[in-house]
Structures are given as C-alpha cells and as structure tokens.
User: Which sequence fits this backbone?
C-alpha cells in the first residue's frame, strides 16, 4: 500500500527554524517527484514546488523561492521542507504529494499543521 | 504562470441531482505532442488531504465512483457529479500540470447539499 506519512504538528515562534518531513512507503521512492502544497486556514491549495528524490533537483514556485528549502534522502525515502526563519504568515497546513514526471499528484500525505505565533 | 479560474465558487445541489463545476485556464494545457490535457481534479473533504479524482482531464482515478466525470479540452474543463450523494460534500479543485513550475490550482468550488 502506497503511503506518505508526514511529521506531526509544530508550534513555533517567529524567527525560529523548522524542518518537517514526508516519508514514503509501498513504492519506489526515487521514481516519483514529491510536491509540497500549502493551505492557509480556510483557504485554497497553493503549489510550493517539488523535488526529484533521485538527484534532489528542485523546482520552486516564485511565490515561495528563497523562503523555503526542499531536500530529500532517498536512502530513507524521506523528503523535507525547511524554513530558516518562520513568519506568522507561514501558519498553515502543509501537504506532500507524489507524482510521476509530468503527471498528476496521485497520493497525498495527511498534512502537517505549522503554527507560528509569539 | 497559468491562471486557473473555477466557477462557481460554491453551489448547493439536491441529493441525486447533477453538480457541474467549471475550470478555465489562462492558456491551453493541451499538449500537441501527446494530445493529452494536463488537467486534474481533486476532492478535499473537511479535515482531510486532497484526493485525486480525475487526471488527463477525463480519466477517472482507480476507485473513484463513476458518477464523477471530467470533460473539456484546451482551456475549458468541467467536472460533473451526475447524482450527488451526501458523501460528495467537499471542496473541489482543478490543477494544471502542463507548465511547471508552478503547477497551479483553481481557487476551489465548495459543494453543499440543498
């Protein structure tokens, strides 16, 4: 069974750093890209970017480039989303999803709620 | 970036009736080489992650009930729920994956029971 399992909810203060994770199982992790999607409270889905676990090649949405960093460790089938300095506006659910090259996102993680508050 | 615009923003439909959601892209998502439309539909129920319903504009994902269907080509697409069931209450999103980055979503359409 294909699964993407994300790390648990986080509560952080502005300016702090954070890394959340997404671990795949039940499939060849390196054969699928991992996308990251933000959903702010009560809002729609925003595509942040993606990473190819084979070589850690990344694409960022212009809206997020420079503010977040994607990485992956294919040896443990895990992708990461990292912030070096959180802002209150980063409060949101973050989802990972997998997709074959140039195809739709067919499996999604359960989401990680990040709350940034002083 | 390709902008995806859905209509309506919300709709209320009686149980057993048809629900129709439209999605328009700011430029074509039809590949001239593959002849495929790079357009997907997702369903998101409250408190859950999105779920893939339709890809290539009209191909139903495995396990998705056949009351869900997708149509359209180029820049104009439709998701139809032929006979609305209570469990279909959700927000529905279209997404283009033709021009990446970024893969863009529509703003979402909330479907409720009338």
Assistant:
């Amino acid at each position: 069974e294909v699964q993407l399992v994300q790390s648990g909810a986080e509560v952080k203060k502005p300016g702090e750093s954070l890394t959340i994770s997404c671990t795949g199982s039940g499939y060849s992790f390196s054969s699928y890209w991992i996308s990251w999607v933000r959903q702010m409270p009560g809002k729609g889905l925003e595509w942040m970017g993606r990473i190819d676990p084979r070589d850690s090649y990344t694409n960022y949405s212009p809206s997020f480039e420079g503010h977040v960093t994607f990485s992956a460790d294919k040896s443990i089938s895990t992708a990461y989303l990292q912030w070096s300095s959180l802002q209150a506006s980063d409060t949101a659910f973050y989802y990972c999803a997998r997709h074959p090259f140039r195809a739709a996102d067919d499996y999604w993680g359960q989401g990680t709620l990040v709350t940034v508050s002083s | 970036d390709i902008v995806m615009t859905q209509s309506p923003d919300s709709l209320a439909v009686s149980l057993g009736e048809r629900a129709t959601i439209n999605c328009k892209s700011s430029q074509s998502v039809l590949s001239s080489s593959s002849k495929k439309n790079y357009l997907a539909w997702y369903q998101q129920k409250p408190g859950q992650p999105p779920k893939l319903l339709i890809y290539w504009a009209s191909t139903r994902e495995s396990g998705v009930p056949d009351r869900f269907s997708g149509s359209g080509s180029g820049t104009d697409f439709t998701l139809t729920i032929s006979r609305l069931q209570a469990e279909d209450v959700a927000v529905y999103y279209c997404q283009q994956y033709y021009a990446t980055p970024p893969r863009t979503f529509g703003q979402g359409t909330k479907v409720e029971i009338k």
User: Anything to note?
Assistant: Chain B has a mean pLDDT of 97.
